[in-house]
Structure formats: C-alpha cells, structure tokens
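Handoff note, outgoing to incoming analyst
You'll be picking up this chain. Sequence as last confirmed:
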Amino acid sequence: MATASPRSNPRSHPGEESPPSWFGPGLGDSEAGALDEAPQPPGSEGDSQFFFFQQPRRLVNVGGSAFLRLYRAFLGARMALGLALIATLMLAAMLGSSTPRWTLMVCGLYALEATALWLLPRLQRSASVQTLSRLSSPQWLASIGFDLALFGVLHVAERNAGVNYGALFVLPVLMAGVLTPRLLALATAAMAALLMLGAATWAYLFGLEPELRLTQAGMAGMGLFVVGLLASELASRLAREERAARGSMELARQQAQLNRLVIDEMQEGVLVMDRRGRVRAANPAARALLGEHQAVRTAPFQMRGVPAWEPLVRAVEQAFVEGRWPEEGRDISLRFSPDAQRGLRLRMRFTRSRETQASEDLCVLFIEDHRNVLARSRQEKLAAMGRVSAGIAHEIRNPLAAIAQANALMAEDAGDAQQRQLTSMVAANVERLKRIVDDVMELAPGRPPQAVPIDLARLLPEICADWARTNGLPADASSLLRLSLPPGGSWVMFEPEHLRRVVINLLDNALRHAPREPGALHVRLQPGQGGEILLAVFNLGAPIAPEVERHLFEPFFSTRSRGSGLGLYICRELCERYGARIDYRRHDGATQAGNEFLLSLRRSAATASKQAHS
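Most recent structure output, in case you need it:
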C-alpha cells in the first residue's frame, strides 16, 4: 500500500527509511495526542480554555488512532479464531470424529499465542506503522507471519478432504491488507496462495484428487489477492478520512487557541453566559471588571446569588426573553458596597441568528467600563474640535496679518503718547493671537513627521543657552538654570524643531512657577533603565494641586488668565508623534522639593548599535 510520499521512521536507524503505509506517522500516536499537548488551563479545568477545547479533545481522544484500534481488533479476532478452533476440534472429538493429537496441539499453540498477544499490553506497545511494514520485524512475525506458518502447516499436513483449513488464510491476508503497505499485502497474499498450491501438490503426490485440489487452490489464491486489494483500498480510504478529520481538528484547535489568545489580550471584557446565569468563559478583563479590588476566579462560575451581580443577571435574562439587544448596548451599575460601584456598558451577541426563532442557550457579553466609554467619547470630540479649530485658525491668519500691517502703519503716524500706547497694545495682542494660531496649527493633521537621529548632548546646551538669552538670564553661577549632561553622546529619534519646541515650553512653564534663586531650574539628561533616554526638567516650587494635576495635559486648560492652555498639551502630542512619553512627578526632599516633567525619548537604533560594537 504505497503512498505518494514515503515518510521516514523517526525511531529507525539513521539513514533507514521505513516503507510507506496508508496510516502514516501523522496518524499515529504523536498526532493522537496533539490536542493533549495544547496549553492546559492554569489551576483547575474551570478556565475558559477548557470550555473552548473540551469538545475537540473529546473527539480526538476516543479510542486513540485508527491504526491502533484496527490492530487491537485484529488481535482480538486472532484470539477468537484460536479459541474457536480448539472448541471445534473438541466438539468433533466428542462426536466421535478422529482428530490427530498434533492438530489439537498446533491449534492450542495458536490460541495461546493469540491470547497472550491480545491480553498483554506491553506486547502491543512497540506495534506501529513502521514495525508492521517490514517482514523482519517481530510484530509482523508474531501476528501475520505466525498465522501464515501455522495455517500452512495445518493445510499441508491435513490430508483429509473433509477439513479445509484454506479459509483461515483470509485473516492474515486481510490484516496485511489493512495494516501494511500494498506491496507487503500482495506479498502476504502470494505467500498464502503458494502454501495452498504446496498443499495441493502434496495431495497430488499421495493421489488425493489432484485436479480438484489444484483448482480449489488456484481459485482460493485469486480470492486472497482480491481480498488483499480490497482491504488495501478500504484502508487507504479510512486513512484519508482520518487524515482529513485530524487536519480539520488541528486547524480548529489552532483557531480556538488563537481566538483565546486574542480574547485574553482584549482590553474589553468578554463573557460567555447561558440563560441560567452560569459563566462558561471569561477573559481577564471581564473578571477584573466583575470584582471590586481584585479579579474574580476563573470560569465557570455562577452569577446568581451574588447581590453585586444581580443587575447583570437581570439584563441577561431580559435579553433572552426579548430575543434582542440594542446595537449600542445598555448601561448598568454594579454596587459592591455602599461606597463602591462601577458603571458598565453591555453589548450582547447571541450564538445563533435571531431569524431561526429558536431559543438561545449561550450569549456573548462585551463589557466595558463606562468611564472608558466616556473617555473615548471625549477623545473623539476633542479630535473633531481640533480639526475645526485648525480650519478656523487657518482662516484667522489672513485678517490677523492685515490687522498687524494696519497697526504698524498707524504706529508710524502716531503723534502723542496715548496713540502709541494703543498701537502697542494692539501689536501685543496680535502677537498673542499669532502664537495661539501657531499652536493650533501645530496640532493640525498633516504629513507624517520625519524623525531623525539627534545628539541631545549637543543640541540641549544650545536650546538652553538660546532660551536663557531670550529670558535675560545670566550665564554664570548665579543663573536660575542648571544643566547636567552624561559623558558621551545621547542619540534619540526626534524632529529637531519639534524637540526645541517641547523643551522651551517646559522651560517657560517651569520659570513661571519657580522662585528667583540660583539653581531653581535644573535640566538633566541621563540613560533610562529600559534603554531609552530620560530628559528631566525640574523646578523648585510648591506642589501642584491634585485638581490641577488631573488636567495638566488637557487642551485649553490653564491656571493663567491670559494663557492658551495648549503648552503641555502640545508637548504631549509632539512626544507621541515620535514614540516618546512625557510624565509629571513630584519630588519631595529636604533641599530639592519641587516639580519635574520627565521625557522618555526613543533611542536611535543605528547609533545605539554602533556604540554597542565600539
């Protein structure tokens, strides 16, 4: 039974190839345990993974592989045949028929060997597709070869025409046709046919109806070849069906595992519930939302009987009764204690479409914290507002330029001090409006930013020096600004002008809240623990109030009456464009108590690689 692509036996010696078989290595024990090797649920079998895998695992593990099931079935048939031969001979002796003692001994030996091979599992462990594919293997000799030898002895030595042992050859030929390659199955049929022809020749020598025996041997030999070919074809079909089934099961297992991994990593909670309120599967996000301070235990678990979960149970029961659920979801509130409650947005999907008009046993709940829903809505509104603001700012530029030009012409003709004061006020407010427009346009969507490698150890002193000159700060030891740089270069990926904008915004903000004393501002550059570069802007000053700290990076939030509220918001947006991060933290100490804004900048990969090799 040769297949199209022979496979080598992993247990054979190096360089030795086993003959092909319909039942290839992919359908043996290794694949029978494929689903067993899948990651098992942590703790008990109550995890969602068990819910996803229990049905495929049950289907695959029923009875092992087809090869082992058929092999054990043939061993049982051999034992039954041996016992039937002993019973037949004993019954014939009781009825007065003369049975040679040696015949009874041969049949007893066959029954004893077949029974031992069937009852002792350790004699079956080494049986496989590869071992039964070789004539010299002990497994083939102990089953098919042993049958051919004993049946041949019985058929050749028994010259009584009333007893025909030729039909016994069907069992080894059928076993070879199902469990061995086609070529070996045909060889087994040929050996059986030769034994029958040998018995006919032996009868010819003794003159026992040679024509009849030769004719019977020829017809029986052709029948054995037909049996071997048909068994081989049926075995090939069975192997193809099993291969297809196991391939589909493996794909289903992989898809289920992929779905489980995706669901476990989702930020949104996912619950699989039935109409009795029993949770069949739950991802970590859902278990965290159902608990007050810690996640609930793994599924399955019952939701009924817990007072905090009653609103959720009632919502599910209502959905099963009504048979529908709003697409946008519904909001419920879980009250864990009088002072602790959590709002949830529920979206539900049933296991089958509602057009079937059938009762649903399972539903899938998508759970999300209501605060996240509101935050996402605010972000969408801010994004829409940013696009509108960018359009408005673009339209303001032209009339603003005309106002500035007209004010400059009026300033040239201003004769008295009052007119000059008015024109200076107009000019100051025009500049303020220009800065606001520039800030808004900076956040407008445009072409993707191009980050380039920047050596902060060289660029940062230049930025700080320009900023100090602009603000009239001295460059000696009495200056408010201190700068600390590590030895060597500090290469990051950023756009130079945008980085200058971020640093100047942070310095301006620090200067407004720092006392006027030497070293009140401190800019520090150092490597981070995760491979990034840390840029810290520190200022001595009073701590920021908690109600202000919550809104630090929100747009249009400012503690100054004439502030635009876009400075820190622009810093955060620019950092996110280039894969950086900005955070605020408070430093409390005896001498260095103050506020610090910390930038985590992405290190330049090419430069870091060069430094690692140098």
